[in-house]
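Field: COMPLEX_INPUT
Field: COMPONENT_COUNT = two
Field: RESIDUE_TOTAL = 231
Field: MODE = joint
Values follow.
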Amino acid sequence: AQKVTQAQTEISVVEKEDVTLDCVYETRDTTYYLFWYKQPPSGELVFLIRRNSFDEQNEISGRYSWNFQKSTSSFNFTITASQVVDSAVYFCALSEGGDNTDKLIFGTGTRLQVFP
Amino acid sequence: EAQVTQNPRYLITVTGKKLTVTCSQNMNHEYMSWYRQDPGLGLRQIYYSMNVEVTDKGDVPEGYKVSRKEKRNFPLILESPSPNQTSLYFCASSLWGGVPQETQYFGPGTRLLVL
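Field: COMPLEX_OUTPUT
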């Protein structure tokens, strides 16, 4: 069965620290897509990244980087030199092919608090 | 500006009083969906629509109805709200349905409290 696990419920760091948010997924499909969304205190959901199951290359976007490892079914998200504005809830999500193409399966989210 | 809008953003109601949360997108997206977000559970899909007049149940459809009469609108209807429907609701849309790589874009959310 498909599932996304974000074991870290809450993480607190001090500004400028690096922080990694873990995401582990389960799927039987060979074709699938993984996403990260950010939910700031204002409540909206902001799309951050999409990665397909055939592309294990790590991605970097400014202070954000993502490490996709099929061998461990993980898609971890690292923020380098964290800032107060990074404080938010972060969701990892999975989208599959086949009969389950029509929904995103979300993890329970990780609340990140960055203190000045 | 390309966006998904929801109204109202906040709503307090009483048990049994029918309500509708509207959702509209201006991106000509085929696919639209409703999710609810609850603490410790993440987001769960309520209903989705692949196109006009095509809707289907998600994981938690009980107590909800939807319609898709126009491409841009996808209202969520609670015929007889109950306190367990107190939640944060998100509408989302993507260009195509049935395509797992399509990114879903979310509305700002509607916070509902049912007394």
